[in-house]
Amino acid sequence: MLFRKLILREQKGFTLLELMVSIVIMGVFLSCLVPLSLRVVSKNELKHAAYTIAADIRYGQQLALMLKTVIKSL
């Protein structure tokens, strides 16, 4: 009879244990993702710097052709 009452009872929320377990699981996942995301950010900054340098070199080449002169970089 007691088992039947437990099955028929509606759940209106989560237990404290369920919330604690889900928070621990999320913490483990986040602790793995933070170092990975930092590596991705630094890799993107390096790519951006390389593209900026390449764009500056192309601009200097175009300017030199347009002015028919030599452009020196610093």
Spell out the key features of this protein.
mainly alpha; 2 helices; 74 residues
Order of helices and strands: HH
* Percent of residues in helices: over 70%
Summing up helix and strand content along with how strands pair, one would put the structural category as: mainly alpha
- Mean model confidence by pLDDT: 85
Q: Please give the largest β-sheet.
A: none
Low-confidence stretches: none
Number of strands: 0
User: For the terminal residues, how far apart are their CA atoms?
Assistant: 87 Å
- Radius of gyration based on Cα positions: 30 Å
- How would you sum up the global shape? rod-shaped
Number of helices: 2
| Beta content | under 5%
Fold topology:
Layout: H1 2-8, H2 16-67
In short:
By secondary structure, the protein is an all-alpha fold.
Give structural notes.
The chain is an all-alpha fold. It has a domain at 29-68. Helices cover 80% and strands 0% of the residues. The chain contains two helices and no strands. It has helices at 2-8, 16-67. The radius of gyration is 30 Å and the shape is rod-shaped. The termini are far apart. The mean pLDDT is 85.
